[in-house]
Specification:
Helix content: 55-70%
Oligomer: single chain
Largest sheet: none
Order of helices and strands: HHHHHHHHHHHHHHHHHHHH
Structural class: mainly alpha
Strand content: under 5%
Shape: elongated
Number of domains: 4
Number of strands: 0
Mean pLDDT: 86
């Protein structure tokens, strides 16, 4: 029985370029990475052997860049098949599942099994990006359960378009696809409380950002993914993802807002893991970065952060640290400065103010802020905001026979609120 020939295209290109062994190519890639300004890339002979196997895995973006630089051919000409394609004789099932698995489960369109011979015009990139941009704006007003399937369906379209695009259009589609997956992941985690689904979706976002070769998008995806282990108290895993996020941010022209947001995310992760002192130090570093300024502009897709939102992070951390007067002052200032349209953030801040008053032994004031949060939730649902209200109710247990707390229970467990929460 004959053995599989393996990836003969890569092997032929390697030999033609003067690298007579797999080890020689591995060494050349490690050296070339430094010349190209790629830090920390080290390629071993085992990796080259896998690439030359009969089922070569899709190389990471940095490896693609070095391979095409050394061998002078496009990555697909070297025998590799993108994860969203299935025209190879034996496609990698793990990578393919990462890209299209949720569409089959959700009953949505999957990526075509055969690569289309047609080529999309340059306008396809702008058209696809325009819908992504609209979804970004709709996130702040449309119910998560309504928007989420539309965003996933749009991402499925992006997966189908990618094989039919090239050059600048391909990068435009890939970047918009990464943003769509990022938005879907944010909805799943923050609005719907589905961390497992969010984890898979954010991995797809990272793959798409790699295809776009957009390090800032990659950094944003990695930072969002750090929330998931942090919410479970897994500090080491969250810290590793934040390290990766900062590494990617150094590769792009990161604005001060972007860098300050990374500090805020890391502070939130530390707070969730009980390290409020470290978190407050990180918040201060974020404030210093914002004050320093920069010539780089913030990406248009980063519409979830601003100086006032950094203050909201700070107020929550002060609350968790037990610095109640400072937390109250910070959060009241945030409420005054939040812009119109920041309804989801407003719900969270009201919840934090209620928690401040509960911790200070002021049940009536705590209930008043909790009522305001619930009023906001009836207009704009946000699972994170509802979590804050529930945490406040648990903190009010010592006063559960007080009239104000009973009124809160009537509101919290009314027919509409209870059914709405269970549906979501």
């Amino acid at each position: 029985m004959s053995r599989p020939a393996g990836n003969t295209r890569l092997k032929a290109a390697r030999v033609a370029a003067g690298y007579n062994s797999q080890q020689a190519l591995a060494d050349a890639m490690t050296g070339a990475a430094k010349d190209l300004g790629i830090r920390g890339l080290s390629v071993g002979v085992r990796q080259v052997r896998r690439w030359e196997s009969s089922t070569p895995p899709w190389p990471q973006p940095d490896c693609q860049r070095v391979l095409t630089h050394l061998l002078g051919q496009g990555i697909e000409s070297l025998g590799f098949t993108a994860p969203w394609k299935s025209d190879a004789q034996q496609p990698d099932p793990v990578r393919r599942d990462l890209v299209v698995g949720t569409f089959a489960a959700a009953g949505l369109a999957a990526v075509p099994k055969q690569v289309s011979a047609s080529v999309q015009p340059a306008s396809a990139g702008a058209d696809f990006e325009a819908v992504t941009r609209s979804h970004r704006r709709l996130y702040w007003t449309v119910a998560p359960a309504t928007l989420h399937p539309a965003v996933l369906a749009h991402a499925a379209l992006g997966c189908a378009l990618l094989p039919e695009t090239s050059f600048k259009t391909r990068r435009t589609v890939a970047a918009a696809l990464a943003e769509s997956y990022l938005l879907a992941g944010r909805i799943e985690f923050f609005d719907m409380r589905q961390p497992d689904a969010a984890s898979e979706t954010l991995l797809r976002a990272l793959q798409a950002a790699g295809e776009a070769d957009d390090p800032l998008l990659g950094s944003a995806v990695l930072a969002h993914s750090a929330f998931i282990p942090a919410w479970e108290g897994l500090r080491d895993k969250a810290e590793e993802r934040m390290l990766a996020a900062r590494t990617y941010a150094r590769r792009g022209p990161a604005s001060v807002e972007f860098l300050a947001w990374l500090y805020a995310v890391e502070a939130e992760c530390e707070t969730r893991c009980g390290n409020t002192r470290t978190a407050l130090r990180l918040i201060r570093q974020g404030e210093e970065v914002l004050a320093a300024g920069s010539e780089h502009s913030t990406p248009s897709w980063m519409d979830w952060f601003s100086p006032v939102r950094l203050a909201a992070f700070k107020g929550n951390t002060q609350l968790q640290a037990g610095h109640l007067p400072q937390a109250r002052e910070t959060l009241l200032r945030v409420i005054e400065e939040l812009p119109r349209g920041a309804d989801k953030q407003r719900t969270v801040v009201y919840g934090d103010l209620a928690a401040v008053e509960a911790s200070a032994g002021n049940p009536e004031e705590a209930c008043e802020y909790a009522f305001r949060a619930l009023d906001q939730l009836t207009m704009t649902w946000y699972a994170t905001g509802m979590d804050r209200v529930r945490e406040v109710r648990r903190a009010l247990t010592p006063w559960q026979h007080e009239r104000c707390v009973r009124d809160l229970d009537d509101r919290l467990y009314g027919w509409g609120t209870t059914v709405s929460a269970l549906m979501r």
